[in-house]
Design goal:
Elements: E1 11-17, E2 22-26, E3 29-30, H1 31-38, E4 56-60, E5 62-64, E6 69-71, H2 81-90, E7 97-98, E8 103-104, E9 108-111, E10 121-122, E11 132-133, E12 138-144, H3 156-168, E13 174-175, H4 179-189, E14 193-199, E15 203-209, E16 216-222, E17 226-233, E18 239-246, H5 256-265, H6 269-291, E19 299-306, H7 308-314, E20 335-338, E21 352-355, H8 365-374, E22 383-387, E23 392-398, E24 401-407, E25 428-434, E26 441-445, H9 452-460, H10 470-481, E27 485-486, H11 488-500, E28 521-523, E29 528-534, E30 540-544, H12 545-569, E31 576-580, H13 581-584, H14 589-594, E32 606-610, H15 612-622, H16 624-636, E33 638-639, H17 648-655, H18 666-669, E34 677-687, E35 690-700
Parallel strand pairs: 1-9, 13-15, 16-19, 19-21, 22-31, 24-33, 25-27, 31-32
Antiparallel strand pairs: 1-2, 3-8, 4-7, 4-9, 5-6, 10-11, 12-14, 14-15, 16-17, 17-18, 20-21, 22-23, 23-24, 25-26, 28-29, 29-30, 34-35
Length: 701
């Protein structure tokens, strides 16, 4: 038991929870002043005037042997007129007090609620995800500026800086140009009471009349196919609104290298792509802000992430050097600049744009954001994080050391290069199962309830002993026509099921000898295809041999990149695999393993992250400490260039098989039934003095 804390005529002892920070302060000190003296995180915008309500606290009464304190209502000042006025206008929860108006008269224990903490923690949705605290770059400071006087002439700006110095102990060294024309109007409207926005403690970024308590920022993920924008409350880190759109650069080329080629072959091509992405973002900014009625002038910070080619094109940097070895970045460092430098019309001109550092020539700020989202350098076990897109970016963390590489997977995972492929939208087949005995498929379609077999049963069966009406039959036919194609997760599961039930060989060839057993295996001109669905007009949706080959090439490149990192880290196995990106979040982990997209591990250890790049951008937006940490950690990452690695081709060839030519995938086989694995040949040879693997051949029994 802690001995009782002794009071004196001048000093009292105060303990703040949940931080546990404690210390002595002068009797009659306000809770806000005591928190500042002791170093406790207690928010305030109005500077102790009882206006903003951000410094709410919860006094704790009773006997606290741990702290050696006994306190009651008499240990603090009575409810003040300021608090009564605030409670009447805006409301106070029962037991809450305003820290700026509450005086400490005796030893006390005082709790700081999460919403009153400036560096509050944000609870992540995934149970195993690390909580992130808010430590904003932009802070709001309410001040009263001295009115101009004839006998002591000085500028409005100088009196504003003096008020910040006196009230908040801030020394401003930079003033954004937009402040000067805005200041006079803000002072007049606010009757010389204004809120100053200070960035990083030394830059005066904006001024608002009277009291302003909320600022916003955008977290932007620019993918090669799609891009997304999240509007974030910078004080709470909550997502206020979100929206996505297709990247308009697709018209210049579907994948990254085709866009580099466009820039190379067309004069002004790079500039055209820069203008297209900025115009699209400008439109996205205003649409997202309007959807939740947030004024543009209150959106003052933007974090953008993307792969290196998207990064260079956005910033107006020539992407052509990234198209060939040595894949030189113009700059790998973080970039921060005023929004007006990029010509945005729908962002405040004093808003700031920031992109985190790129990791390597084809591992960009989006991969850095994934690393930040997961704090991958702190992983307790060997962990792979893969951001799957047209270019897969791969991170491997082993005992605090992080390796990075990229693999050119192409657009097959997103439905492109697939005969009936499409984006994940209404009408797309997204889930597929094949019966082991009849080889009949059933599937799920986006924006439609249930499995396809349930629809067919409804269509062909009877309801309450009566046949469907002609109108009902027509409705069913119309619904059947609304099945428009197969999205990425659907093609992954479809191919995985074909292999699982024995219709597909491990080398990727459909088994033509099985055609006699099912009408769904159809002869094409030179190969076979598998029929998933055929509507009343005879329009068929199939998985073709070419579809399978496209997925093989993509997954082979992805797996080979991961295997290279494991080789450099001295690993045979990884413990966890994190799948990032819109596509990664929709993949069933079991089928990611059946196809061999990722190295073998327990299916429960394959974790879809959702859009981790956006999550990392959001963290960089709301926490300046983590932003600086990321910049430091990126410099320590070991970069592996797959294009120059002699073992990449061997790994790629072996990874073309389902799930793999030389790895039996024992963890996967322990979880599900698969065709028997037999490695019939595995040897090595020497060529030009370099030891190379010829790989392994596999047969299916």
């Amino acid at each position: 038991m802690t001995p009782p804390q002794q009071e004196s005529a001048e000093q009292v002892f105060v303990v703040f929870t949940p931080s546990g920070l404690r210390g002595q302060v002068a009797r009659g000190t306000s809770v806000l002043e005591a928190a500042r003296k002791i170093g406790v995180d207690l928010d305030s915008v109005c500077g102790g005037r009882g206006i903003c309500g951000r410094c709410q606290v919860q006094p704790s009464f009773g006997h606290y042997p741990k702290h050696g304190i006994e306190c009651d209502q008499k240990s603090i000042s009575e409810f003040s007129a300021t608090e009564a006025r605030y409670e009447e206008k805006r409301g106070l929860q029962k037991g809450r007090r305003l820290g700026c108006s509450t005086k400490i008269d005796a030893n006390m224990v005082i709790d700081i609620p999460p919403e009153s903490q400036l560096k509050r923690q944000v609870i992540r949705k995934r149970p195993d995800a690390r909580a992130v605290s808010v430590d904003p770059l932009l802070r709001l400071h309410y001040i009263e500026v001295e009115r101009p006087q004839l006998d002591s002439p000085s500028g409005d700006c100088e009196r504003l800086l003096e008020a910040l110095r006196k009230s908040w102990n801030l020394e401003i060294s930079q003033i954004d140009l937009t402040v000067y024309p805005a200041l006079q109007e803000a002072l007049r409207k606010g009757d010389y009471k204004i809120t100053a926005v200070v960035r990083e403690s030394n830059t005066l970024l904006a001024v608002f009349p009277a009291l302003e308590t909320t600022l916003y920022g955008f977290a932007i993920d620019i993918g090669s196919t799609t891009m997304s924008a999240q509007l974030i409350d910078l004080q709470s880190a909550k997502v206020v609104a979100a929206q996505g759109m297709m990247n308009p650069q697709i018209r210049f080329g579907e994948d990254l290298m085709s866009r580099v080629s466009y820039a190379m072959l067309n004069e002004g091509g790079a500039l055209a792509m820069t203008e297209s992405i900025r115009e699209a973002l400008d439109k996205l900014f205003v649409e997202v802000a309007a959807s939740c009625s947030v004024p543009i002038e209150k959106i003052l910070e933007v974090v953008l992430v993307g792969n290196p080619i998207m990064h260079h094109i956005f910033w107006g940097i020539d992407p052509i050097p990234l198209g060939a070895a040595p894949f030189a970045l113009a700059s790998a460092s973080a970039i921060s600049t005023p929004a007006r430098d990029c010509g945005f019309k729908n962002l405040a001109t004093n808003a700031r744009l920031y992109t985190p550092p790129c990791i390597a020539g084809h591992v960009g700020a989006d991969a850095a954001a994934v690393a930040l989202s997961e704090f991958i350098w702190d992983a307790k076990e060997p962990t792979l994080a893969i951001d799957i897109g047209t270019n897969a970016e791969i991170l491997l963390s082993v005992e605090g050391k992080v390796f990075a590489a990229s693999s050119p997977t192409g657009p097959a995972f997103e439905g492109a290069q697939i005969e009936h492929g499409q984006r994940a939208a209404a009408g797309a087949i997204e889930r597929i199962r094949i019966d082991e005995k009849t080889f009949e498929p059933r599937f799920k379609v986006i924006d439609r309830e249930g499995w396809s077999t349930e629809w067919h049963n409804e269509q062909q069966g009877e309801r309450h002993g009566e046949r469907h009406s002609e109108k009902s039959a027509k409705n069913k036919q119309a619904q059947s026509k609304q099945i428009t194609g197969i999205c990425g997760s659907g093609i992954i599961e479809g191919i995985g099921e074909l292999y699982r039930v024995g219709l597909l060989r491990s080398d990727g060839l459909l088994r033509e000898e099985k055609a006699a057993l099912t009408k769904n295996l159809r002869k094409e001109e030179r190969s076979f295809s598998y029929l998933l669905h055929e509507d009343a007009d005879g329009r068929a949706i199939t998985i073709t041999q070419n579809d399978i080959r496209a997925v093989q090439l993509a997954k082979g490149a992805l797996h080979a990149g991961a295997r290279l990192l494991m080789k450099h880290a001295g690993l045979e196995r990884v413990s966890r695999v994190l799948l990032a990106g819109a596509f990664g979040s929709h993949i069933d982990p079991l089928y990611a393993l059946i196809l061999g997209l990722v190295p073998d591990c327990a299916p429960s250890s394959v974790v879809p992250l959702g859009n981790a790049a956006s999550s990392g951008a959001r963290i960089a937006l709301v926490n300046r400490t983590h932003r600086r940490l990321l910049e430091e950690k990126v410099r320590e990452i070991v970069k592996i260039e797959t294009a120059t690695e002699p073992d990449f081709q061997q790994y790629f060839v072996e990874a073309m098989a389902f799930p793999h030519a030389s790895d039996p995938y024992d963890n996967l086989r322990a979880a599900t039934r698969l065709p028997q694995f037999v490695a019939v040949e595995k040897n090595t040879r020497r060529s030009g003095g370099r030891r190379r693997g010829a790989g392994a051949k596999q047969t299916d029994l």
